[in-house]
Amino acid sequence: IRWTEQWLPLKTTLLIVDARVEFNAYYKTICLAVDRKTIITQDPIVPQLTKLLNHAKTIPTQDIDVVCSLSSGSVDPSTINTVMTVQQILDRTEGDLVQEEDQFTACCYAVLTRFDLDGSSRIVSERCVHCRMLVREPNARCPKYECPGHTAANAREGFFDITVDISDHTGTLTGCRMVGQVAETVLNCDVTTFVRLTDAQRTQLKWKYLLDRCAVRLIVKRRSAVRFQNLYSIVDCAIADPAEVEAKLKVY
Questions:
Q1: CATH number for position 187
Q2: Which of 55, 103, 124, 196 lies 20 to 30 Å from 12, alpha-carbon distance?
């Protein structure tokens, strides 16, 4: 237990032998468990160590990094054709329809019930232009000491980071994220243009989608032992054709 206080994320490497692999009912996924036979070696001297550590540093860890990764083109939105209701998405995420994979896609014909472009909700976030680390405080610098952005001024860039709620006749999916290029495509403007809009213009832009039936295509990533909440990343959103909705909308 004393050793764990010295472990540093993305710096400490552990070689774990004889760990027990078991299904965790709380996280609803396969996890590692330690018992009396488990041997843990800290920072072992093995040839693969450097490559493993460098690979680990490229994997997104923060929720916003995961969402940006999902929406960056990893899945072609045109291939997402599995129609689900909100309730089916919730059941597939942590209900009766949970499966082993931690990620799935869905097309949901839903109404946008939260799209707060002209309110107090966060619409634009900032990140370091060098390492892409999220910069949370206004006028702050990159929090990573080894990054050039930690000492450089104006090493930040803005990107859309919009929280969206979608609803249909089965319920509401809260906390969906629309980020980056996806949001630019939906809003038909970039961050620089958006921040210059007046409140009236933002309100007008909001009502192009709010409370209207849309075809929302999502990538859903279930929570895990290292990520404590489900992520709903919107990769495409367009006003739905009424005939299409009538033909494809599911009862459940």
A1: 2.40.50.140
A2: 103
